[in-house]
Structures are given as C-alpha cells and as structure tokens.
Design goal:
Its main location: cytoplasm. It is a single chain. The chain has 21 helices and 28 strands. The chain is of the alpha+beta class and about 900 residues long. It folds into three domains: about 425 residues, Kinesin motor domain (Kinesin); about 100 residues, no CATH class; about 180 residues, Immunoglobulin-like (Sandwich), CATH 2.60.40. The strands form eight sheets. Strands 4, 8, 9, 12, 13, 14, 17, 20, 21 and 22 form a ten-stranded mixed β-sheet that branches. It has a five-stranded mixed β-sheet with strand order 25-24-26-27-28. Bound molecules: adenosine-5'-triphosphate (ATP).
Length: about 900
C-alpha cells in the first residue's frame, strides 16, 4: 500500500505502446499488428485499450462513512479516513484514479448503458465481438449494474432491447440459422426451417419444449424491463437477415455449467468443457443455444437460467453471486439473395458476432464475511479465479510493454481459471473489452477497493486488437431488401384498392431500382418513399392491365390449342392402333430374322471349320508334293550315278579281263611246260616202280613215296593239267613235305610237320565245309580249328563274310575197297576281293587216314563209292582224280559264289 501511495496518484491512461510485445501464447506482434485468425497473414490492425469504467454505488445506509469521492466524469479520488490504520503517521494523502468514465452514485442505469454498452451493441450489429464484465468487491453493485431489477433495468436487458429494435424488421425466420454444435451455424432451406417451426409449434401445444415460448401475457417484471424504447441503431446492414441466439453459463468452483441445459429428470447440471473452434474462438462445448425473436423471449430465457444460478446469503450481501455468470448474446447475419427475399444458402457468408456480458462474483475476505463450509470454499474459488484474471492481464500488459531487441514474453496462465480460459481469445485475439469497476464507497471496503482500483488502472493499459469483420461481397445490389419492402407495400396498397391480381405479381426489385438510384437512402416513412410507392403502384397497375390482356389472349390461344390438341389426340389414337399392328408384324419379322441369323451363324461356323480343314489338307499336300519332288530328284541323281558307275565298271572289267586272260594264258603255257616236265619225271618214276614191282624186290622207298601216293600225285598233276585246281593251291604245298602230315596207325604215331601246325592265332575264324553226315574221325590227331563254324552247303559267298571267317577248311572223305577211310582237310585264307566277294587261297592240305581192321593185306586202289552219299550228297567218282575235281568244283561254287566266271579258282 505504501508503494501504491508513493506512486503518482493521478495518471492518465497510457496510450498504446509503440511496440507491444506478444503474449506467451500468441505469435509475436509488432505495432498495430496482431494475429490474423482467419488467414494467418500479418496485416496492420488497430488496437484499443481495455475500456475501464468506474461506477460508485450509493452508500448502503446514510450513516456509512465513505472513502471515495468522484471528482469528475473520469477521475475518482480515494481519501482514507483518520481512523484507518494506514494513516497512523498522520499524513492524509488522497489517491486519484482516472478511468474512461466514472459514474456518480446517482448515475442511472441508462447512463451506464449509453456510455458502456451501447457501443458494444453497435459492435455486435457490425459483426464484432465484445466483452463486458463487472468487477468489484462483493455487494458493490455488479449484478445491479449488469442485470438490474424490475424498476431499474441493467445493461443486459437494455442491450437486448436495443438490439431487437434495431433488427426487428430484418430478422430471419426462426430456424433459418441453426447451430452446428461447434460454435458455428448452418443455413436451413425455407422448407426445413418451416418444418422445424412446426415441430416447435407442436411442442408448444404439448407443453414439452423447454424453450417453446408461448404467446402469453408478458411477465410484469420482464415487461417493465423492456418498456423503454431506445432509438434503433443505424449501423445495420439492411440487406442482411439476422437471428439472435442466447447462451447462459456459470463458472462455479472453477467448473462450467450450462444454466439453460435441459437436465431432464436430473436435478444437478452437468459440468461442461471449454473448447476452441475453427476460428480460434473459445466456446463451451455442448452449450444450449436458444434462438430468440423478441426481448421478452430473451429475458424469459435469462430468467430460466437465473433460477439455476448459484446465489447465496452472506454477511455482506443478501443475494450474493457465488459464481461468475456469462450471458452471451450471439447475432448471426447473412446476406439476402438478389430479390432481397431469402438468405443466400451458403454458410460461408454467415457472420457471427457475440456480446459476452459477464457478472463476476465479488472478491471477499473471509475475515469480513465470516464464511465457513461451502461458502468459504466458494469464496476461495472466487478469489482464486479473480487472482488468475488479474495475473493474466498483468502479464499481458507486461508482455505488451516490453521493449528491446530480445523481449522475454511471460507465459500467460489463461488455463488456470475457467473464466480466463473462456475469454482467452479476446485478450490474444481481437474484439473490444470493457470493464465496469463497481465500488462500494464505504470505509470498510477501503482496502479491497484499493486492490480493485489498482487492478482496474493496470487493466486499462492492456491493448486489444480491434476486430475488422470482412463482409462477404456477393456482387448484389445494395438496397434490395428495401426494394423488396417497397414492392410489397405497393402490392398491398393495390390489393386494398380492390385489385386482387396484385397479389399474384412476382417480386421484381428491378422495377423498384428503375424508379431512382438514390432510393436506398430514403427513410421508409419519408415523403420521397411515399411518392416512389405511388409511382410503383402505377407501374404495377399498368403491368396488371397488360397481364389481363395477355391472359385473355392466352386463354384464346389455349382454346385453339386445346382444340388442336384434341384433333391431334384423335389422330394419335389412330396412329397408335396402326403402330400396334405394325409392331406385331415387326416382332414376327424380327423373330424370323433372328432365327435366320442364327442359322447363318451356324453355317458360317461350319464353313469356317471346313475352310480350316481344307487349308490344312492343302498344306499337307504341298508338303508331300515337295517331298516327292525331292525324292524323285534324288532317285534320278542316283540312277545317273549308277549308270555312270556301271559304265565305268564295265570298261574296267573289260580291261581287267583282257589283262587276266593274257596273264592266265601266259601262266597256263608255263604250267603246261612245267607239268609236261613233271609228267615225264613221274612217268619215269612209274616205270621204275613197275619195274620194281615186277621184280618183287621192293626198294626202300620212303613211306610217303608209296605207289599209292605217287598215283595220287599223278592224279593231282592231271588235275593241274586240266586247270581244275589252282596253281596257287598246289604251289603252297611242296611235294616234299606232304608226306609228313600223314598219320597212319600202321606206322605208329603220325609225325607232325611244322609247316602244317595248326594256326594258334586267337583271332582266326574257321569255316568248315563238310559233308552232311561225315564218317567220325577215329584218328589220334584231330584237326585244330578254333572258332569253327561248320556248313554242309556253301551256296553264297555271304556265308563267308557273314561269319567273318578268315580261314576256310574243305573236308573231303574217301574210302577204298578195303574199308580204309581217308579224310583230307584243304585249308586256305579267305581274302576279300575288290568286287565285294571273297576268294580262298589254299595253302595247306591235311590228310587223316583210318585203317579198317578187316581190310586185306593186299593193297588195293581206294574206292570212294561207299562214301559218296555221306560225304558229298551224291555218287563220288571212283578215282582220286575225280575226287580232286569234285573238291575243286565245290570250292568254285562255295567260296567265290561267282567263281565259275573266274578263272583263278
Ligand atoms: N447503483 C446502485 N443503486 C442502487 N442500489 C444499488 C446500486 N448498486 C448496488 N445496489 C444494491 O446493492 C445491493 C447489492 O448489490 P449487488 O447484488 O448487485 O452486489 P454485487 O456486487 O453483485 O454482490 P456480489 O458480488 O456478492 O454478487 C443490491 O441490493 C442492490 O440493489
């Protein structure tokens, strides 16, 4: 208090600082700039300080001492009395405080309203938000100022009165605007609004609707409050339509309650929460918004809420507010259409403004009130919330007043209290804020009043951004609603003059505009307006006359047209009948056509299949023809080649034949000479043998040179002479060694000639050519023929090559008259010839002889007659020579296959 007194008591309100600092919850602000809540862009914006008014109530009783003195309309002086403790030093100093306006104790409610609230109602109509709250010690007259009583209406009813008088002719029909529960509004069509009105009417008759206002005699208290007739505001946009909505909430023990809530069977109210809408406006979520059309309805709603408001009897006030109450008047406006008849159905064009009238609970000291229990707790909550309000505004002011390059903004604790949280958007956002500081001037309230004064002084230094609502520009002609109104008046006048057609005229504001460009500025009851209405009536009469004529003409034309129509109808009937019969024929034809089309489709599909098959076959034929041509070409080529080979072979064969023939002739001559020489020697030998035999003195001739052998040699020589046996075979067996291979039982074991040793080659394959039923060999020495294959007939040379034989053995068996059997093995190499055949070159003869046990000792000439059948399949020649010839012939046949043509075999 000392510090406060040391300050200059007289201090004018501070002008807005050059660079107000941003609050902790708001973006930084520069001079004249605040946050643009709609677009986010920084743009210059004017600011106004919080308007603080001071109202001093009369002293409660005549005996009360006062410490306050109103010096003039803006200054109040606090003058402590002698008995106050603070004046113990004897010095009496008067404190003076300056406010926007200070109301004397005898100031009327109208004075307060006109100075404080009327500008706020103007703001409301212009589309701006305003906040008005009363602040002061308990019993200082806050409720009295805000609400008043039946005789002295407070600010709130007067605001409603002024508002409704201003918008009375421009109100939209009920339920055209409907709250969207998110602090916004939407526009219903005329039909939907009508439906809602009917529902409300039903509720009214049923008596169920909480706010279904009845057309009844006004409450005398309410009627008295609405009795004064203020002048309507001229700031109204006459082309808009308006609706008023009321909400009424209280903050009790730092909780929000909806005083208009339909709580049903529940007695207690539900606690509500505060939320921020899309435009950063704080609102009570789920609060009841009641649309009112008159002051009476609005006050009725207020009285309903007032009954629920927490009031209490304290020592200092018989009807003390135990909560902060917020009465919100929300004005919704939207432009009308081009005819000025209905609201444009676009919620983007809606402008919502609100005037919040806050009756704060009074601060009180428990030492004075002697409160206990619930009252004490209420007082604690009230004081806390008021303290938060003070702190918020103080921080806001400090933040705004900070200078320097790096200002440190304090965080403003709006959320610490519901009341500051609720109005955060006013302090951080934009609008107009006014405060009425209510003062009870008695000396007992001195201390608390001083606190109030200091707070009030500080508050008026806080700057609030001025709202600049943006009006939607739809490009519609101004004054359309007035034009609409004039037109309706003219129509009514004509109707009253006995021209009922006037009611059927459609609204034509264009006609009103054509009467003069300055008509929007006329007052409705001015003489200019009257003359315009007269002009309008004349035009409309002319229009009605013209319409009558046109209607008569139209009736005539309608009759003609009707007649024409009847004729047409007749013709039409005929045509319909024809059409029906044609349709039937057409249907038949269409069915037939469909069936034919179906058949055609089937045939087409089968033709497609056949075409596919034909093309496939043609392709196959082409391929085969191509192959045939290739084969024929190949064949003709081979034929030509074969012919060429044949010619070549024949010429070569002829050359070879000539050559062989010459060689053969040459050899034959040589052999003949040689054989003749041999024959001569043999004859000589035979002769000697004959001589010996005849002399019976047998010389010791070698066994091999017996007469029999010699005879055989002779026979063989004869064979050679005849050319039946090849010279090559004979030459490979020297006569001197031939005897070595004989093996006779008479002379013991047969001696083996090395030259006649059987081939041990593992790779040789033998082809044994023998008789079908040979006499079994009983000799000790058996022929060694490895890989042998035996054949009885050799008809084709292929047997040689098929078998893969490299060796050939011809087996010949002979038996003489004594029963001795002689087996001869003619052995040779198989040599392939250049003509594809094979030739055998004999190189060895092995002779195996078996002695008959019953033969006579007399040597006889061998006879093969008994063996001929078994060995060669036919009668054998009786002589060895014949046998040799037979062997040779068989060799010719069996080995070469075509040997009969070859002279070498
Ligand atoms: N300006 C005034 N003229 C005549 N009577 C007044 C005036 N101001 C207040 N009163 C009377 O003072 C009494 C208390 O006033 P009011 O209830 O408005 O105080 P308050 O500030 O609202 O108190 P609380 O904070 O406890 O609610 C009421 O009976 C009221 O009629």
């Amino acid at each position: 208090m000392k510090a406060a007194m040391a300050r200059t008591p007289m201090r004018p309100p501070k002008t807005p600082r050059a660079a107000p600092m941003p609050s902790a919850q708001a973006p930084p602000m520069t001079e004249g700039k605040r946050r643009d809540l709609s677009g986010g862009k920084q743009q210059p914006q004017q600011q106004d300080p919080v308007n603080v008014f001071c109202r001093v109530r009369p002293l409660p009783s005549d005996g009360d001492l006062t410490c306050m003195r109103v010096k003039n309309s803006t200054t109040i002086a606090v003058n402590p009395q002698d008995q106050h403790k603070l004046l113990q030093n004897g010095a009496q100093r008067e404190m003076q405080y300056i406010f926007k306006h200070v109301f004397q104790p005898d100031a009327t409610q109208q004075d307060v309203f006109a100075s404080v609230a009327q500008p706020l109602v103007e703001n409301l109509v212009r589309g701006r938000n305003s906040l008005l709250f009363t602040y002061g010690v308990t019993g200082s007259g806050k409720t009295y100022t805000m609400t008043g009583n039946s005789r002295h209406r407070g600010v709130m009813p007067r605001c409603l009165d002024l508002l409704f008088r201003t918008i009375s002719d421009y109100q939209a029909k009920k339920f055209v605007f409907k709250p969207d529960k998110l602090n916004g509004f939407e526009i219903l069509s005329e039909e939907d609004a009508l439906l809602e009105r009917q529902q409300e009417m039903n509720q009214r008759f049923a008596g169920t609707g909480r706010f279904a206002f009845r057309r009844k005699e006004s409450d005398p208290e309410i009627a008295s409050q609405a009795s004064v007739e203020p002048t309507p505001l001229s700031v109204l946009d006459e082309d808009n339509m308006y609706s008023v909505f009321i909400t009424y909430v209280e903050m009790y023990n730092n909780s929000v309650y909806d005083l208009l809530e339909d709580s049903g069977i529940q007695k207690s109210l539900q606690c509500k929460i505060i939320r921020e809408d899309a435009n950063h406006q704080m609102f009570v979520h789920g609060v009841t918004e009641v649309e009112v059309k008159t002051v009476d309805e609005a006050l009725e709603v207020f009285q309903m809420g007032q009954k629920r408001k927490r009031m209490g009897n304290t020592v200092l006030n018989a009807e003390s507010s135990r909560s902060h109450s917020v009465f919100n008047i929300r004005l919704v406006q939207a432009p009308t259409d081009c005819q000025g008849e209905h609201v444009v159905q676009d919620k983007q064009n809606i402008t919502v403004s609100q005037l919040s009238l806050v009756d704060l609970a009074g601060s009180e000291r428990s030492s004075r009130t002697k409160n206990t229990g619930v009252r004490l707790r209420e007082a604690g909550n009230i004081n806390n919330s008021l303290m938060t309000l003070r702190t918020c505004l103080e921080y806001l002011r400090e933040n705004q007043q900070q200078l320097g390059p790096n200002p440190v903004a304090k965080k403003i604790p709006y959320r610490d209290s519901k009341i500051t949280h609720m109005f955060k958007n006013y302090f951080d956002g934009e609008g107009q804020v006014s405060m009425i500081v209510c003062i009870n001037p008695r000396i007992e309230d001195y201390d608390e009043n001083m606190q109030v004064m200091k707070f009030a002084e500080m508050t008026q230094e806080v700057q609030i951004a001025r709202a600049t609502p943006i009006k939607p520009d739809l490009g519609l002609t101004p004054g359309r609603r007035k034009a609409n109104k004039l037109f309706k008046i003219a129509v009514n006048n004509l109707n009253e003059l006995g021209i009922p057609e006037a009611k059927q005229l459609e609204m034509d504001v264009g006609l009103v505009y054509s009467l003069g460009a300055d008509f929007p500025h006329y007052q409705m009851d001015s003489p200019e307006t009257e003359s315009k209405i007269q002009e309008l009536m004349e035009y409309l009469e002319q229009r009605i006359d013209k319409r009558r004529k046109l209607r008569a003409n139209m009736d005539l034309k309608c009759d003609n047209f009707r007649q024409l129509l009847m004729n047409l109808d007749r013709d039409n009937l005929q045509l319909r009948t024809e059409l029906a019969s044609l349709k039937a024929v057409y249907k038949q034809e269409r069915d037939r056509s469909a069936a034919l089309e179906n058949r055609v489709r089937i045939h087409e599909s089968s033709i497609d299949v056949l075409n596919n098959t034909v093309s496939k076959r043609e392709r196959q034929i082409q391929e085969l023809t191509h192959k045939l041509n290739e084969q024929e070409q190949l064949l003709s080529q081979k034929e030509q080649e074969k012919e060429k080979q044949k010619k070549k072979f024949n010429s070569k064969l002829a050359v070879e034949s000539d050559k062989n023939k010459r060689e053969f002739d040459q050899k034959l001559r040589e052999q003949r000479v040689k054989m003749q020489e041999r024959m001569r020697i043999k004859d000589e030998k035979l002769r000697l043998v004959s001589n010996i035999l005849q002399s019976e003195d047998v010389p010791s001739l070698p066994r091999s040179q017996s007469s029999e052998d010699l005879l055989n040699d002779k026979n063989r020589d004869r064979d050679h002479d005849r050319g039946a046996f090849t010279a090559r075979t004979e030459s490979s067996v020297p006569p001197t060694t031939r005897t070595d291979i004989y093996c006779t039982p008479r002379h013991g074991l047969a001696a083996a000639n090395n030259r006649h040793r059987r081939s041990r080659s593992a790779g040789d394959k033998w082809l044994e050519h023998r008789a079908a039923n040979p006499v079994p060999l009983g000799t000790i020495m058996q022929p060694y023929l490895k890989n042998r294959k035996s054949v009885t007939k050799l008809t084709d040379m292929k047997q040689l090559t098929d078998h893969g034989a490299t060796k050939y053995c011809l087996v010949s068996q002979e038996a003489d008259t004594d029963g001795d059997v002689e087996t001869k093995l003619y052995k040779g190499n198989v040599i392939p010839t250049c003509g594809g055949g094979a030739q055998v070159v004999f190189e060895d003869v092995e002779c195996l002889r078996q002695k008959s046990p019953v033969h006579s000792p007399t040597r006889k000439r061998p006879s093969n007659s008994n063996l001929s059948a078994s060995a060669f399949g036919g009668p054998l020649p009786s002589t060895g020579l014949t046998s040799v010839q037979d062997v040779a012939s068989r060799c010719n046949l069996g080995i070469e296959g075509h040997s009969s043509k070859k002279s070498k075999i």
